[in-house]
Structure formats: structure tokens, C-alpha cells
Design brief:
By secondary structure, the protein is of the alpha+beta class. It contains two helices and four strands, in the order αββββα.
Length: 75
């Protein structure tokens, strides 16, 4: 019987310790963008979304998914 009481006390102390170690404050602050994140742009011809780094820029500031779509749009 004493052994079960000792196990119960040890478990209670463990769970109280875990609760105290848990982060508080509910929702955390939003994550800051890292070097791996990129802005997404939409091709005005086919509506494809792609990373800005993979897009083909036009002189008017728009981005296209390919040179063919840029030419088809007249830019």
C-alpha cells in the first residue's frame, strides 16, 4: 500500500512540474519570415501562382509564369 502511495506522489509531482514548464500566454507571436520564404505572384494570363524568384518580370511591373505568356500579353 505504501508503494502505491509513493507512486501516486511521484506522478503528481511530475505532472505539476510538467504543467509549470509548459509555455504560457496562449497564441504565440507570428513567425518572422526566413530567407526561405518568398512572395508569391500571379500570372495575369493563366492565373498560376508562383514564387517571385521563378516568375518572368515585364517592364510594366507585372510578373508572368513564362516568356510566352509575357509575349502573349504584349509586354
Amino acid at each position: 500500500m505504501k508503494f502505491l502511495l509513493l507512486i501516486g506522489i511521484v506522478l503528481a509531482v511530475y505532472f505539476l512540474w510538467r504543467i509549470k514548464q509548459a509555455p504560457r500566454g496562449g497564441a504565440s507571436a507570428p513567425a518572422k519570415p526566413t530567407a526561405l520564404t518568398q512572395d508569391m505572384v500571379r500570372c495575369p494570363v493563366c492565373s498560376l501562382h508562383l514564387p517571385r524568384g521563378d516568375a518572368v518580370p515585364a517592364p510594366n511591373g507585372q510578373f508572368y509564369c513564362s516568356a510566352e505568356h509575357r509575349t502573349a500579353a504584349g509586354n
